[in-house]
Automatic annotation (TrEMBL):
<feature type="binding site">
    <location>
        <position position="279"/>
    </location>
    <ligand>
        <name>(6S)-NADPHX</name>
    </ligand>
</feature>
<feature type="binding site">
    <location>
        <position position="166"/>
    </location>
    <ligand>
        <name>(6S)-NADPHX</name>
    </ligand>
</feature>
<dbReference type="Pfam" id="PF01256">
    <property type="entry name" value="Carb_kinase"/>
</dbReference>
<dbReference type="GO" id="GO:0046872">
    <property type="term" value="F:metal ion binding"/>
</dbReference>
<dbReference type="GO" id="GO:0046496">
    <property type="term" value="P:nicotinamide nucleotide metabolic process"/>
</dbReference>
<feature type="binding site">
    <location>
        <position position="64"/>
    </location>
    <ligand>
        <name>K(+)</name>
    </ligand>
</feature>
<feature type="binding site">
    <location>
        <position position="342"/>
    </location>
    <ligand>
        <name>(6S)-NADPHX</name>
    </ligand>
</feature>
<dbReference type="GO" id="GO:0052856">
    <property type="term" value="F:NAD(P)HX epimerase activity"/>
</dbReference>
<dbReference type="InterPro" id="IPR017953">
    <property type="entry name" value="Carbohydrate_kinase_pred_CS"/>
</dbReference>
<comment type="subunit">
    <text>Homotetramer.</text>
</comment>
<dbReference type="GO" id="GO:0005524">
    <property type="term" value="F:ATP binding"/>
</dbReference>
<feature type="binding site">
    <location>
        <begin position="63"/>
        <end position="67"/>
    </location>
    <ligand>
        <name>(6S)-NADPHX</name>
    </ligand>
</feature>
<keyword id="KW-0521">NADP</keyword>
<feature type="binding site">
    <location>
        <position position="169"/>
    </location>
    <ligand>
        <name>K(+)</name>
    </ligand>
</feature>
<dbReference type="InterPro" id="IPR004443">
    <property type="entry name" value="YjeF_N_dom"/>
</dbReference>
<keyword id="KW-0630">Potassium</keyword>
<comment type="similarity">
    <text>In the C-terminal section; belongs to the NnrD/CARKD family.</text>
</comment>
Length: 527
């Protein structure tokens, strides 16, 4: 289950296609955006609807600024007192924005958005509208703009509701990251520049038509405040360019159909040595709770007793070396493996990984398995398209150093390289599905499909940052692979369920709780 997210270029293409087809003009879309924004704001804060107040609208040089002029005019029409500032040259506004600039000029003044005078208005507005940049931001922001917005924000953000039109100004609609501000002049070096997106402390972001990919990545969830979508009457989201989708639920196959236990697969989880089996046992519990028919922990001799006293429904087999694992995998009912949690970095662990990869099963590779691969000359030589790699940021940088470097350099111009691009490139190189963890988990496969499982906005799950949570995720993936989901669907569903389990438990969560919350999460899906 998923929802389409758009790049800035796709949004422009949709808009252009609608305009070219003659069903709507750009001016009508801008009117709908501005009117829809005011409706959404007054719906969000009924006190503002009940008593019109004072607003400040900060407009920029493109169509986002045009939306701002519409908002200003509509607010005045509803009894508001509005001041408008423009960053840029009114003569150079694009045509639709220019029309709305002129319409606004019939209603009120336009002041210049500079550092001067921004901090001395003599009142605190009830509402501030950020309409400086939208999806067209394409390069480093000038110091003068950043300074002006900072001065305004420092004086007024306490007490004013701040709303960003489409996306907070300064954020890339592709990467969700802040595009840097230019360095200050020599005599202002002591005054740090701050991105308008951060300085304004935005309470609400109103995305027009659909969320953009950047709304769910990088700095955006912290900078956007709440995120709402404003319908501007554009049809659908179909584009001919591959894009990313937001994971909004588990994929087909997670709900359990009737059948014998072997119809639901047999997952095995390789443990570490004595004293190091906890991570694998957590993973195994996740695999079993998500419905794998059978789950077996596979442990070396010295760790057998430790596992035996802890496991009941999860089965246990001894396996001392790669040859023993290869023998075990002669049983073709074993259809999925989980490798890595607590496995250690020994040569034995490396040999076990090779034996597993040679046996061509569905395999979730996590933690130590990723570290072992990253140390190899060719980490991806033995991977195949039934594998899922689940790196966090550090593991991703070890496995794909050049891709991580490209992702981490500040984006000076658009469209910015995003975590979606990076994960897609990583999956292409690895030849399998990659799940790049974070609050903005991105899942991509080797065919170019990409999805975002966002634990942000009203799905925030801060309690997931706890030891062992990643091991459970790897186990849930292995369980879903055993049940026959494709690597992309297994990884996406697992990421979604993992966040839902954390949210269902709430504060105080520890990793052991995650598998135990899955029945409740699954039951809620059936209601
Ligand atoms: N698509 C749709 O369906 C609809 C879109 N709508 C709205 O339009 C918005 C997109 O409009 P947009 O393309 O004009 O982009 P926007 O962000 O306003 O500004 C770009 C301008 O800024 C300039 N510029 C760029 N970077 C800069 C910098 N660092 N410093 C200084 N200047 C910089 C750039 O100049 P240039 O690069 O051309 O030199 C250009 O002039 C979208 O977010 C939504 O709000 C709605 O009306 C409803 C329908
Ligand atoms: K904006």
């Amino acid at each position: 289950m998923d929802n389409l997210l758009l790049t800035a270029a796709q949004m422009r293409a949709l808009e252009q296609a609608a305009i070219d087809s003659g069903v709507v003009t750009g001016l009508e879309l801008m009117e709908r955006a501005g009117t829809g924004a005011v409706d959404a704001i007054l719906d969000e804060w009924p006190d503002l609807a009940a008593a019109p107040g004072r607003a400040v609208v900060l407009c920029g040089p493109g169509n986002n600024g045009g939306d701002g002029f519409v908002v200003a005019r509509v607010l005045v029409g509803r009894g508001w007192d509005v001041e408008v500032f423009l960053y840029g040259d009114a003569e150079k506004l694009p045509p639709d924005a220019r029309v709305n600039y002129e319409r606004w000029r019939e209603v009120g003044e336009v002041q210049t958005l500079t550092g001067r005078d921004m901090d001395g208005r003599g009142y605190v507005p009830d509402l501030t509208i950020d309409a400086i940049f939208g999806t067209g931001l394409s390069r480093t922001l000038s110091w003068e703009l950043c300074d002006a917005v900072k001065q305004y924000a420092w004086t007024f953000t306490q007490g004013t509701r701040v709303v960003a039109l489409d996306i907070p100004s300064g954020l890339s609609a592709e990467s969700g990251r802040r595009i840097p501000c230019a360095d200050p002049p020599e005599d202002r070096l002591a005054f740090p520049t701050v991105s308008p997106a951060a300085a304004l402390a935005i309470d609400l972001t109103l995305a027009f038509h659909a969320p953009k990919i950047g709304h769910y990545l990088g700095d955006a969830p912290a900078d956007c405040g709440r995120l709402r979508v404003v319908d501007i009457g554009l049809n659908g989201g179909a584009t001919d360019v591959e894009t990313a989708r937001l994971v909004c639920g588990p994929f087909e196959g997670v709900a359990k159909a009737s059948g014998h236990k072997y119809d639901h697969g047999h997952a095995i989880v390789l443990t570490g040595g004595m004293g190091l089996t906890g991570a694998a046992r957590l993973a195994a519990r996740g695999a079993l709770r998500i419905g794998a028919g059978l789950v077996t922990c596979v442990a070396p001799g010295p760790a057998m007793m430790e596992c035996a006293v802890q496991l009941t429904a999860v089965m246990l087999r001894r396996c001392d070396d790669a040859a023993a694992l290869a023998d075990l995998l002669e049983d073709d009912r074993i259809n999925a493996l989980c490798l890595g949690p607590g496995m250690g970095l020994s040569d034995r662990a490396g040999d076990l990984i090779d034996a597993a990869l040679s046996a061509r099963r569905h395999i979730a590779l996590d933690a130590d398995a990723l570290t072992i691969l990253a140390e190899r000359d060719d980490p991806f030589a033995m991977l195949h398209h039934d594998c899922v790699l689940t790196p966090h940021g550090g593991e991703f940088a070890s496995l794909f150093p050049d891709i991580a470097e490209r992702l981490n350099v500040p984006a000076m111009e658009g469209p910015a390289y995003s975590k979606v691009d990076a994960t897609r490139d990583a999956a292409d190189r690895a030849g399998c599905t990659v799940l790049f963890k974070g609050m903005d988990t991105v899942i991509a496969d080797e065919k170019g499909n990409a999805r975002i499982n966002a634990a942000v906005y009203d799905r925030a799950a801060p309690w997931l940052a706890t030891a062992g949570a990643g091991d459970v995720l790897a186990g849930i993936i292995a369980g879903l692979l055993a049940r026959g989901l494709s690597p992309l669907d297994a990884a996406s569903s697992a990421a979604w369920l993992h966040v839902e389990a954390a949210r269902a438990f709430g504060p105080g969560l520890i990793a052991e709780d995650l598998p135990e919350m899955l029945p409740q999460v699954l039951a809620a899906l059936e209601r």
